[in-house]
Structure formats: structure tokens, C-alpha cells
Amino acid sequence: MDDPSSASNKRKRGRKPKVSPPSPDRSSPSAVAAPAPVPVARRGRKPRRHEDPADADAARPPSPLRRRVLNTVANGGDAVAEAGPASWDEVVRVVPCMDAVVKVFCVHTEPNFSLPWQRKRQYSSSSSGFIISGRRVLTNAHSVEHYTQVKLKKRGSDTKYLATVLAIGTECDIALLTVNDDEFWEGVSPVEFGTLPALQDAVTVVGYPIGGDTISVTSGVVSRIEILSYVHGSTELLGLQIDAAINSGNSGGPAFNDRGKCVGIAFQSLKHEDAENIGYVIPTPVITHFIEDYKNSGGYTGFPILGVEWQKMENPDLRKAMGMKPDQKGVRVRRVEPTAPESGCLQPSDIILSFDGVDIANDGTVPFRHGERIGFSYLVSQKYTGEKALVKVLRDSKVHEFKIRLATHKRLVAAHVKGRPPSYYIVAGFVFAAVSVPYLRSEYGKDYEYDAPVKLLVKHLHAMAESPDEQLVVVSQVLVSDINIGYEEIVNTQVLAFNGQPVKNLKNLATMVENCKDEFLKFDLEYDQIVVLETKTAKSATQDILTTHCIPSAMSDDLKA
């Protein structure tokens, strides 16, 4: 069929529409027009060729996607010329990588952070994944978060196979699965990984999005390569921005280049009234880091960070005041994480000049590829937890070099609980909990950054843990009883001290309360509030309150150990 949008099909001045000749694709031998009778030319115009309907498909130039499909072969994706048009049955045979894309079915049972002694109602979801070497399957971490059961179904199969989750990388949003049934792996070639694509390179995203049950293919180009914010991981890593549609269900599906090699994993998209077709892909350097981390350590250890906050040095007066020479560039250290290994050598107002021999510019970027620059955190994320890096700093106009052991980030307000049930402690109806991002989301919804109390948000965004086990402990709610009259309105208020002793974490608070022999229990809260309860009465009333609210225990299992 001819393209109805072509100019030759528009009616002009009442004349019959003329059929335009096809423009053969010079890159594909199959796009050659069949010979046809030549009509008599009129008014000096060139004679037009007419297509026979049977030859229309052969004569029409193939679409970019079909051209890539026709030029992809089973031996690794090298482009070859095929004689004549291929039917869709032939297409299936020449694209084995499609058969490696699987549909992921997961049953989730999320913890209830607002009522931490129980879980929410289970729900099901579907997403995408793909088979790699070593009898492994890759998908997104958020696709199997809080899983109770995971099943995989191959393309064209009616069987769902039980899967085992080997590792979940929350920061990079990647999960590694396997299937014990040998039948699952029969007749499937694993996906091979390609190199990091360049801008404007074509990509094809394959998966099982909403809108149907069969496999779906969308195509586009790489429009941006930079450090991206990973929504699920609450971190920043290298990412690709593409203009191919990534919808719900596409998560975990591979993105292929023109050679049929995987260059990334689809994982999120931008939904905004001013933006269209903006999708994001986890690139191969991040995927390779995750896989190698699992191979070397037998589990996921995370992406290390340089535990500092830094400031750009683009202002010439600032550089001069810090004692920098005209040929020196770098960034200024604002704060150092007390729990990070860097706290033993780096200091505020140090100027970081280079990381592992790569000079850092005044805006915090380093050379990436030809004509491109990227944030120097990319160099840090390429390292593995426990590895050492050489950091060159300028301090008091003198250059110092330090070998720093890299570690993962320890946040005061944890971004993830990583599959663990939430901790809680109850006494006299007061429910104490440790604040985390899932807790804030449970209490205030997806827009918790706007609706949560300002003091909690400030600590979430800016506070640093002074010790590895420090937590932000709050009175989550008060289960009303005669013992706590007058305290009912205390909600999500931080606990600063108990009987004059600072509260380090939830377990520390529970231990102090359980071992208290004083006459009163006194809790010092923020905003200069205090809660005072008689010790003997408070502890005896706790069991009745638990029974009333069908709570099995006064504390979570992790606090009992």
C-alpha cells in the first residue's frame, strides 16, 4: 500500500491522483522496484511508473526498524545483505535476541511502615527482563521489590517458571534472577552486551508494556548521556536518555543497538506536561559493574561514593582566596561525612584537584569522550566497594596525596530498608520508629518532600550520621489509652533523649526503657516537648494496649536480638 500522506495522493484541481514511484533504499538490495509499463508522458513531464499491488511490499523502502531486523543475524548481529523481502516468519528466525526477552510476573507484599507490625495487602505486577550468559536473567530492582513470588515466561510459551532472586541492587535499580528448571534455558541464546552508544545512535527497546500481552518494540535514538537521578535508588549514576517510548511494563527490558547488542536496560521515563517521549536507560557500564560485583563478592555490595559535599570553584576571586594557582583547577570540600573513610584525611576547605590521576575542572567535571564532559562522581562509581583511589588535594597552598578506601553511603535517613521489615518499639501506647524514606512515603504519600514536617525534611536532606548505627527516632503515633491522656496529638516528633541520655537509635531507646528502674519514664522531644509516665504503670498498661490493637509484640524481632 502507498503512504496516504504522500503528496502524490492529494487531490489537486479535480484531477485523478497519480501514483508516485517508490524511492528505493540504496542500503538494502530488497528495496528494488519491479519493472512496470511506462505511460505516455504529457506536458513535458517525466513518465511515471505504476506499481503492481503484488509488488508494492517489495518496492516500498523498509522502515528503519524493519531494515534493522532484516539486517540482524543470529551470529552476533552483524549486518548482511539479504536477497529479496523477508516474511515475518523469517524475521523471527533471524532475531534470536527477541526470544531472550522474558515477561516477569511478581507478587509483592510490602511492609506497612505506618503500622510496622503488619504488612499491606499483596498485589501483582508484570514487567520485562532478558536472559544473559551463565543462566541468569536481568530485570529492574523495582520490578521485584518486596517480592514473595517471581515467575518468568518466555516469548511464545504458555509456561511460567518459578524464579529465584539472586541479588537486588537498589541503587542501580537492577536485579539478578535465575531459574532452576532446565527446560527454561532450552533453545534460547543469551543477550550479548555492546559498548556505550554515542549520541544519535539508534536504539530499540523491547519488552512487555501495558496495552497488550505480546512482545512490543519501540525505537528511537540516544539523545543525552549524563549522570542521572535514579528515582528508585535515590542516587545518581550514569544514564542514557532516549526518545523511544518507555511505558509501564517496559521496565527491565533490554535496549538494543543496530547490531543487536544490548546497550542498556529500560527503567524509568519522564512524565511531564512539557515533555514527550523522554525515556531513560541504564547503560552497560552500570550493568557490568553490578554483574562483576556479584561475581566477585557473591552478592551486591553497592556503588561507592566519595563521602564529601563539594562546591564549584568557578569564581576567580574564590580561587585566589583559596591559594590556587592559575593552572590549578578543582572543587572545594564543604563537609565530610563523619562515617566515611575520607573523614580521616580530607578536611573542609580542601581543594580536590584530581581523582585517580584524572584532573577535575572547576565545575566538577572530567573528560568523558571526545567533545564530552561528565561529573567526576562517574569515576568514583566505576570503583568497587573497598577499593582504594588516589586523591590529590590542595591544602594551605600545598598539594597532598591520599590513598582513600571507598565505601558506600551511610545516610541518617535511609533511602531503602532493602527487604527488611521495619523496626518499631511500643510502650504505654507510644509507637517509636526509625525514620526512612519509605516511612515518609507511607506517612505523607509520594509528595512527602512537600508535605512532611520541615524538621524531618531538613534532616533527610542535609543531616549526616555521626556514627554508623545512628538513626532518627520519632514518636510515630500514640495508641490512645488512659495512661497517655493529653499526649494523643504527638505525631512524628523526634525523640532527643530518654531520662537525660541521648537517643542514638531505636534499639538503644528500647534497651534504656526496658532496663529503666527510675520512678518515671521521661522522653525529651523536639520543640522542647517532654513526655513523663510512671514507669510501673506504663509498662503494665503496655500489654493491654497490644491486646486491644491485635499487636503480637511490643517490639520488632530485630530489637529482641
Spatial strand order of the main sheet = 5-4-1-2-3-7-6
Shape: globular
Structural class: alpha+beta
Q: Would you tell me which CATH topology of the largest domain applies?
A: N-terminal domain of MutM-like DNA repair proteins
The biggest sheet amounts to: 7 strands, antiparallel
- Mean pLDDT across all amino acids: 84
In terms of quaternary structure, the protein is: single chain
Strand segment count:
28
Text of the CATH class of the largest domain: Alpha Beta
How many domains, as an integer?
4
Family: Belongs to the peptidase S1C family.
Keywords: Hydrolase, Protease, Serine protease
GO molecular function: serine-type endopeptidase activity
InterPro entries: DEGP_PDZ, DEGP_PDZ_sf, PDZ_sf, Peptidase_S1_PA, Peptidase_S1_PA_chymotrypsin, Peptidase_S1C
Task: Please provide a written account of the structure.
This protein has 561 residues and is α+β, with helices and mostly antiparallel strands. It has four domains: 92-185, Beta Barrel (Thrombin, subunit H); 201-285, Beta Barrel (Thrombin, subunit H), CATH 2.40.10; 308-406, PDZ domain (Pdz3 Domain), CATH 2.30.42; 424-559, N-terminal domain of MutM-like DNA repair proteins (Alpha-Beta Barrel). The protein contains 13 helices and 28 strands. The strands form five sheets. A seven-stranded antiparallel sheet has the order 5-4-1-2-3-7-6. Strands 22, 23, 24, 25, 26, 27 and 28 form a seven-stranded antiparallel sheet that branches. The radius of gyration is 30 Å and the shape is globular. Residues 25-41 have a biased composition (Low complexity). Residues 414-558 form the Protease Do-like PDZ domain. InterPro entries: DEGP_PDZ, DEGP_PDZ_sf, PDZ_sf, Peptidase_S1_PA, Peptidase_S1_PA_chymotrypsin, Peptidase_S1C. Keywords: Hydrolase, Protease, Serine protease. GO terms for molecular function: serine-type endopeptidase activity.
